[in-house]
Design brief:
Helix content: 55-70%
Oligomer: single chain
Radius of gyration: 27 Å
Order of helices and strands: HHHHHHHEHHEEEHEEHEE
Number of helices: 11
Strand content: 5-15%
Shape: elongated
Strand order of the largest sheet: 3-2-5-6-8-7
Structural class: alpha+beta
Largest sheet: 6 strands, mixed
Mean pLDDT: 81
Distance between the termini: 44 Å
Length: about 375
Amino acid sequence: MSKEIVSLSPDDKKLLIEIAAAMTKFEEEIAQKWDDLFVKSSNGLKESDRAIKNFKEAVWLLLTSLSDGDFDAYFNRIDEKGIDFAKTKEQYENLILSFHLFEEATFPYLQKSFAEKMKIVLTTLDHMYHNVIAILARAYFREMEKEREMFVNILAHDLKNPLTVIIGYSELMIERSRTGTLSKDKEYVYLNMIKDSGVRMRQLIDSTLYYGKLKSGKYSLIISEFDLANIAWEAASYLLTEAEKTPISIHINGHELREEVEGMTPVMIMGDRDLILRGVGNYISNALKYASSMVEVSLQERDEDVLISVKDDGSGIPTDHIDLIFGDYYMVPGGKPGTGLGLPSVRMIADLHNGKAWAESEGEKGSTFYLRLPKRQETGH
């Protein structure tokens, strides 16, 4: 079944095949011009970033020639592959931009080859372009709907567990109070279970709301200068109660976390304090779930940036999952329960700061999660 949306007449298709054949001999030059335009139009684009290179190579697959005249295959490729390169709003917008820039890069060569009929050439290409954009939009919004359903299902599932505890212990307290069999010790235990479950629900809702803000692409950074060592200590302190329920200790730059940490060297950085606190907290919380005995937080100050690493001594991440864990809702099979929103949130926080988030793992030796952040940020970002 054809994915064509704007109808192309036989004459349109004949001309498009002719255009594609004529442009084939200029393909390398057009590719270079498109690349230059894409770099120029993308603020903060770093050529050394492998993700950027992968994206550009993937987009180029969608821009390949139609000289064989197989329009169905071309439109199917846009529909099936386009969404793979547009999982976020930013990626989707970049994909649309790529097609605009491809047209711009191609224009001088069209003038050389079709000077006498440029008007009809541009009209026909416009019909083709409308098809491409419509197909990409349809694929993107189809994916968004799938994501929305997954989001609702995961949130409902995760909220159900603490809510079940709250209802169960409340009913138990009511029944035993009625019969006069509720001791003070049991009352204390039940109330703590209810409180812990309520805190868990609040954390789930809070992290979900933050994820939604980041995912919308409309989050505006509030830039200030602060001490990253303090942020790491604060993020870890929030989780100290959780850590004390287990034999796990938390260290920051060699200092074991206590009520206060003295002697830590300040690491000054500019960024959104609240977001970076949340990102580091997500890393530490994740490490606590998998650690056997210790979580190590390290802050390494370099010339232009700071490298934050959070290492656990748990069972590690299988090699074939290491590149997937920062994807939305992704959870390693057999892993600990969670929403699958924590690591994607860190990824988006890194992106907003022109930084990078990634992880490394060595079999049974545990995992290390990294967050690289530039020391300076544009205050208008």
